[in-house]
Amino acid sequence: MTLALGIGRVNVKPLWSKFGTAIGVGLGGLDMWTNQLFGFSFFGTLKHGKTDAQSLEPAAQHQKIDYPKPDGVLTFDRLSSVFLSNTNHEEDQPVHLQVKDMELQKRSEHDVYAGPSTRYCPAGVYEWVEKDGRQVFVINAQNCVHCKTCDIKDPNQARSIRTCEFGRRAARTEFIIAKRETHPCKTRLS
């Protein structure tokens, strides 16, 4: 969490991560206050210490979380949310998400970490499905909202994200305000 103050930016998230919510937020408030008053931080520049991918722990060290089903009022399923993002890909567009070593993906991402990509991807791009009695990694690239979470969180750092095919990037609906009216106008981003 980075906050912009009158004299600059203060990142309080490392304090929060290091000391927990109650103490970390309190220290973050103190840090912001001293930055505002004195123009420097008593804590200096703090780092997280490791990347998001390195912070992932084996699934065996944790209890499985059973998430409740979306209720359609306050919580919604991922595919409905992807639809609302209005990110569209051409039907014949080449897949822009690649896994460098599918066997490593199975041994590590699935067997050690219990398939975290199925949970951290906000668009439901990644799935582990059973095919012929074997778990297979499926990439639903058409759902991708280009957030790059998989590039950050993949435990093996074994994914490559290619830019969408030249001249055919994901299209988004943009709204143009003209004469106090809102007109939907589908445009291509290039």
Key phrases:
190 residues; disordered C terminus; single chain; 8 strands; alpha+beta; two-stranded antiparallel sheet; 29% helix
Structure commentary:
29% of the residues lie in helices and 21% in strands. It is an alpha+beta fold. The protein is globular and about 60 Å long.
Short description:
With about 190 residues, the chain is an alpha+beta fold. The protein is about 30% helix and about 20% strand.
Q: Would you tell me the overall average pLDDT?
A: 78
Task: Give start-end ranges of low-pLDDT stretches.
Answer: 166-190
Q: Taking Cα atoms only, what radius of gyration do you get, to the nearest Å?
A: 21 Å
- Widest sheet, order of strands: 1-2
- Summarize the biggest pleated sheet: 2 strands, antiparallel
Strand content: 15-25%
What series of H and E elements makes up the topology?
A: EEHHHHEHHEEHEEE
Write the layout of secondary structure elements.
Elements: E1 2-5, E2 8-11, H1 13-19, H2 21-38, H3 52-55, H4 78-85, E3 97-99, H5 102-110, H6 117-120, E4 126-131, E5 134-139, H7 149-153, E6 159-161, E7 172-178, E8 181-187
Antiparallel strand pairs: 1-2, 3-6, 4-5, 7-8
Helix pairs in contact: 1-2
